[in-house]
Amino acid sequence: MCVAAPGRVIGIKNNIARIDYNGNCVNANAGLVEVKPGDYVLVHAGMIIQRLNETEAREMTELFKTLEELGNA
């Protein structure tokens, strides 16, 4: 099973978006979903697969933090 965590687009050049995951930045192909800098997205296999609103991104981030804490308990 694959799980995509929300990241924020910080730039786009030639259909390649730079995604920031709390300071860890990666490149992802932006050919499937229209995005702009500042958008929150989900990435799978190097491709942006979904755009999220800020509320959805924050809720998912909090959920992942909770699950991590429970796993470390």
Structural summary, described in words:
This protein has 73 residues and is α+β, with helices and mostly antiparallel strands. It has one helix and five strands, in the order E-E-E-E-E-H. A five-stranded antiparallel beta sheet has the order 3-2-1-4-5. A hairpin with a 2-residue loop joins strand 4 (40-44) and strand 5 (47-52). The chain starts with 6 loop residues before the first strand and ends with a helix.
**Spatial order of the strands forming the largest sheet:** 3-2-1-4-5
Number of helices: 1
Could you give a short account of the major beta sheet?
A: 5 strands, antiparallel
Percent of residues in helices: 10-25%
Terminal CA distance reads 23 Å
Uncertain segments are none
Coarse morphology: elongated
Structural class: alpha+beta
Task: Give the arrangement of secondary structure elements.
Layout lengths: L6 E7 L2 E6 L2 E6 L10 E5 L2 E6 L1 H18 L2
Antiparallel strand pairs: 1-2, 1-4, 2-3, 4-5
Would you summarize the structure shown here?
The protein is α+β, with helices and mostly antiparallel strands and 73 residues long.
List key phrases describing it:
73 residues, alpha+beta
